[in-house]
Specification:
By secondary structure, this protein is mostly helical. The protein has helices at about 1-40, 45-75, 80-140, 145-165, 175-220, 225-250, 255-265, 280-310, 325-330, 335-370, 375, 380-395, 400-405, 435-449. The protein folds into 2 domains: about 1-80 and about 335-370, no CATH class; about 115-325, no CATH class.
């Protein structure tokens, strides 16, 4: 049974030898093709120079992969010592790492490079969208102050109208100093509200431009065709969108509101009371002091609200960095694990065949060690032994005596004790077949005589 199994394993190894070489050649060729596609995407220069450089590099990779795994398949299964196996495994690990470095990542770039670049563009669009939204929110933050400013303007305007018609503040109707002061404060508030409304129109226009840029960028990400021209146009749109975001950050009306709030209190100039009577002048002064206090409170409220808006973190300027397909597939490697697995498998699959051959040859060696010598010897070895026997016999050497002399003393047969008196010596059977042809012929001639 062991002999039959050993023969089947020998026959199997001989049968798959051609298939192993063919598989190594096909895998090396496939790796070279994908290496060519990946190398072409990262080389610069004229089309002719890029073509020949990529072809030469991919051919070198194919030859190197085929030669390396051919050596490993030829030698590793027959190395039996522990030190030799360890050294061969170390060489295999170094060779596999070199193959990964020179071929596998380019294979992955050829398999998933375009998808990786598209993912890079998609994530960049998301980042720019977040920047545009944040810049838009910061620019519109000052719009929340518009209702308060409008109410303050209306309140001053209403007080001026009431004072003009009924004199409810000073007790005297007419357009005096108080009416002028209230009208002045109402006009300042209206001017500030107008500035906020104007800035809102500008912010909305810039935001609409940014939205159009983002739509163009999204269409470039999902558009069919090669990725290189789309990436170039995407870069142009990204630069334009960066300018829009910067303009939005500079359009914020919050700094202007902060300065206007300081002007309300620091630049408050009350007119001189113009009443004809001392009592009216006194009442006008009291009302103007009240207006001053109200303006100061309004100024502090506006300054606080403007400071809260200005304290928001500004949008940092983002710079778009284009990536080649090889760089993108390395940067987003965790998102393209299947492509990486396929690229690496093409290069390292021959290692599995090497280990299969090593296991089979190991099984053959173990089975042959358990076989008798007569079943292990081949016909060629038997013929060679017979030739040696004839040559030795022709030289007049007795093989039996030579073998007996070559045996160590520990292996010599024990001395047979002499038979005692009254005992009949027994003749020990001789089971040794003489292979000395000349001595056997002399014995036969003596018997004939």
């Amino acid at each position: 049974m062991a002999l039959a199994a050993t023969r089947r394993l020998h026959d199997g190894v001989a049968a798959v030898e051609t298939m192993t070489r063919f598989a190594l050649a096909v895998l090396a060729l496939a790796s070279g093709v994908y290496t060519y596609l990946g190398a072409r995407s990262i080389l610069d220069g004229s089309p002719t120079a890029v073509f020949f450089a990529a072809v030469i590099y991919s051919a070198s990779v194919s030859v190197g992969i085929y030669a390396f795994w051919s050596y490993m398949a030829r030698f590793y299964p027959h190395v039996t010592t522990r030190a030799g196996r360890t050294a061969m495994l170390g060489v295999m690990a170094v060779g596999a790492a070199m193959i990964l470095a020179m071929s596998s990542w380019l294979n992955a770039a050829a398999l998933a490079g375009s998808a990786a670049v598209e993912q890079h563009l998609s994530e960049t669009v998301e980042d720019y969208t977040a920047d545009l939204d944040r810049a838009h929110q910061n620019a519109l933050a000052a719009q929340s102050l518009l209702p308060d400013i409008q109410r303050a303007s209306e309140r001053f305007s209403q007080l001026a109208g009431v004072e003009r018609q009924s004199g409810s503040l000073t007790g005297t109707t007419g357009s005096g100093s108080v009416v002028q002061l209230l009208s002045q404060m109402s006009a300042q508030m209206k001017s500030l509200a107008a500035n906020i409304n104007a800035s809102r129109e500008q912010v909305d226009d810039l935001f609409a431009q940014g939205q159009k840029r983002l739509e163009t960028m999204r269409s470039l990400v999902s558009a069919p065709g090669t990725i290189e021209p789309r990436a170039d146009q995407f870069s142009t749109e990204a630069v334009a969108l960066t300018g829009v975001i910067t303009s939005l950050a500079q359009t914020s009306i919050a700094p202007s509101i902060r300065r206007a709030a300081d002007d309300l209190s620091l630049g408050f100039i009350a007119p001189v009371p113009d009443g004809g009577a001392a009592d009216l002048v006194n009442r006008q002064s009291q009302v103007m002091d009240t207006v001053r206090a109200s303006v100061s409170a309004q100024s502090r409220a506006l300054a606080k609200a403007a400071d809260e808006i200005l304290s928001r973190p500004p949008v940092q300027e983002r710079r778009f960095v284009p990536l080649s397909s090889a760089e993108a597939v390395l940067h987003y490697a965790q998102d393209f694990i299947p492509a990486w697995a396929g690229a690496i498998s093409i290069d390292l699959l021959p290692g599995v065949m090497v280990f299969i051959l090593a296991v089979v040859h190991g099984a053959i060696r173990r089975q042959e060690e358990n076989l008798p010598f007569a079943e292990r010897i081949t016909a060629a070895e038997l013929l060679r032994a017979l030739e040696v026997q004839r040559a030795v016999t022709a030289g007049g050497v007795n093989i039996e005596q030579a073998v007996a002399k070559a045996k160590p003393q520990s292996e010599a047969p024990a001395t047979v004790p002499e038979p005692g008196p009254g005992s009949t010596p027994e003749q020990e059977p001789n089971n040794i077949t003489a292979i000395d042809l000349k001595s056997r012929s002399r014995d036969r001639s003596h018997e004939d005589r």
